[in-house]
Design goal:
300 residues, alpha+beta, Phosphorylase Kinase, domain 1, five-stranded antiparallel β-sheet, three-stranded antiparallel β-sheet, 9 helices, 16% strand
């Protein structure tokens, strides 16, 4: 699965001294015009357009993440804190369309952060305090939040997981495709069979790794909605199991909590979707290898 991380800082309280996060003059001078930090500064210049009451321009307090798909910054104005996410040039090549994520951010709070402002390269949300989910902490509360998400109705374009993995495969080099063709065929066949057996769909996050789950006591907020869309509920459940490394007993508890019934009828299906999640993660890793090869060639 794509690790399209939108990380929010952990343990940053509103009582922190903002000055200690402020970049020095030399650091500001070293920023290149095309850098994510410079783009963030441009977003801050538009602060008067934000959908919140501010008395002065926000300033960058800290870098929250700096990945391949985007960089995120903690910014503040007075006692109000926000997260600014700057997308890289090709961040949307495998994700859902930007407007789809914007719509979900508008409709799903408090399951997601509150949308404050956006343009074609940046998304500003209200900063959510908390830490990444530490599995299996508060599994009952997490499952309740997931059920709420899966019960929401938002009109979105149709999503095909089969088409999605085909786009991954198509981006691999010819050499990688030749080397892994049989493994891809087996995984793709299993995916097609699994989806045919379980065609039910609901609104899913589609990337519920612990880094995309913020916990504050009993409350959970899901972040990084670039891949959200209609999919099997088992896909989100299997992602929790795989990336949370849940034990067999914890998996059974998750199923009982989610389905509100005995877990036995759901165990085989969960296992099938765990295999699907591992297949997509394998494709993502191959895609990263391909991207690294292309970068090395372009630098020579």
């Amino acid at each position: 699965m794509c690790v399209w991380f939108y990380r929010v800082a952990t343990s940053l309280s509103r009582t922190n001294d903002a000055a200690r996060f402020k970049p020095s003059f030399s650091e500001r001078q070293s920023v290149t015009p095309s850098s994510p930090q410079q783009q963030c500064e441009q977003v801050l210049d538009a602060w008067q357009q934000w959908r919140t009451e501010l008395s002065q321009r926000p300033s960058i307090q800290a870098t929250l993440s700096a990945g391949r798909s985007h960089a995120s910054f903690l910014v503040a104005s007075n006692e109000m804190f926000f997260a600014v996410r700057i997308e890289s040039e090709h961040a949307r090549s495998l994700a859902m369309k930007r407007q789809q994520e914007i719509r979900l951010l508008e409709e799903l709070p408090p399951l997601c952060p509150e949308l404050i402002w956006s343009n074609d390269k940046a998304i500003v949300t209200r900063f959510v305090e908390g830490h990444h989910w530490r599995a299996p902490s508060h599994l009952e509360s997490l499952t309740l939040h997931l059920r709420k998400l899966h019960g929401r109705q938002v009109q979105l374009p149709a999503f095909s997981l089969l088409d999605h993995v085909e786009r991954y495969w198509a981006r691999l080099t010819d050499q990688a495709q030749r080397r892994h063709r049989e493994q891809y065929r087996v995984g793709q066949s299993h995916l097609a069979l699994t989806l045919a057996r379980h065609p039910e769909q609901c609104l899913c996050h589609n990337d519920l790794i612990p880094e995309n789950i913020l916990q504050n006591g009993e409350h959970f907020t899901f972040i990084d909605w670039e891949y959200a869309g209609y999919n099997s509920p088992y896909f989100d459940l299997a992602t929790l199991v795989e990336y949370g490394a849940l034990t067999k007993s914890q998996q059974r508890e998750l199923l009982r909590l989610y389905w509100q019934e005995d877990d036995k009828p759901h165990q085989a299906t969960l296992k099938d979707f765990q295999r699907v999640v591992r297949f997509i993660e394998w494709l993502w890793e191959l895609l990263q290898d391909t991207a690294n090869v292309k970068r090395r060639r372009s630098s020579n």
